[in-house]
Amino acid sequence: MTYYPEPILKLIDSLAKLPGIGKKTGERLALHILHAPNHEAATLAADIIDLKNRIQLCSVCFSLSDKDKCRICADPSRDKTVICVVENPTDMAAIEKSKAFCGTYHILGGALSPIDGIGPDDIRIKELFKRADPSQIKEIILATKTNVEGEVTASYILDRLKRTNIKITRIASGIPMGGDLQYIDPLTMQTALEKRYGF
Amino acid sequence: MTYYPEPILKLIDSLAKLPGIGKKTGERLALHILHAPNHEAATLAADIIDLKNRIQLCSVCFSLSDKDKCRICADPSRDKTVICVVENPTDMAAIEKSKAFCGTYHILGGALSPIDGIGPDDIRIKELFKRADPSQIKEIILATKTNVEGEVTASYILDRLKRTNIKITRIASGIPMGGDLQYIDPLTMQTALEKRYGF
Hints:
The structure is a homodimer.
Chain A: H1 6-16, H2 23-35, H3 38-54, E1 56-57, E2 64-65, H4 71-74, E3 79-86, H5 89-98, E4 103-107, H6 125-131, E5 139-142, H7 148-161, E6 167-170, H8 186-194, E7 197-198
Parallel strand pairs in A: 3-4, 3-5, 5-6
Antiparallel strand pairs in A: 1-2, 6-7
């Protein structure tokens, strides 16, 4: 690709680092950006910087946020007595897409995985237990993935919380085993939420 | 997608303006950028700005360049007596990829298209005629596309230059190398037969 001047080659390289984008798509995107209006390219660059600078974790639920408290934790219409525990923000996004849940979240930032050496201290489980005050919380929905790590994580949390007065539920099956919450269609997600069962 | 904080939504929107990237891919890319190392995101943003600021057109051939003269026009090993006329920089890139040409280029910046109201003054044909000095140039290869607009453009240039001492040639059309005759469209087949050559 040495026939392009260096600024184009550099952008192609940077774009090709993104998932699902190779040199060929990178070339197409770089040439598009080159011919796009200046303000459009400037906006794209600014948005990338902005994202890295402004996104932080919500101090309550650890979801992605541009403020100390995320939109959901700050929303008075959301039910603060129900916490839905998910592994990561994309799982939370998938649940929000279904519009079937009006409580709050707790983002663990991963799942327990003894094989990979990920224990309770490596994800935000302690922070969940801290939030699990029976005088404040009525229900905790375990919506970790339905794969081994997710199930182990759900079991671990259930085991530690089952002696409290908080109702612990698991998101219903209906989601294929080993399936990634991120790719579930909203209707399946809604069904899975409605059919959640107690232990 | 309102469940994402605003900086993420803004970046998804900006990414979704790129060709072949929709909201879904934009979401995936934005989340990748969010989790990528800071320097990687910063580089991507800087490369976008850099591209817009540093790329100009070569003052000789009008190809993309980061200097007044592009790499090819500035290269003493390239044959300055042969000009290959193409419609745009991607066509030039395709020819460079073949490594079969060691002359210079002239990028028209489009093709004649009466239907779309694109006449000789709308593309860089005048600039080509200015370069077509018989004391400097031996051959002009017309490598405009093989569609109606490309053929019209080639004919127009041929018509204006055929009375000079410069040899005017047209890039060959026919069956692609390794191409299966079975899948060749009738027009290409017709051309391939008409342009057949003896040994």
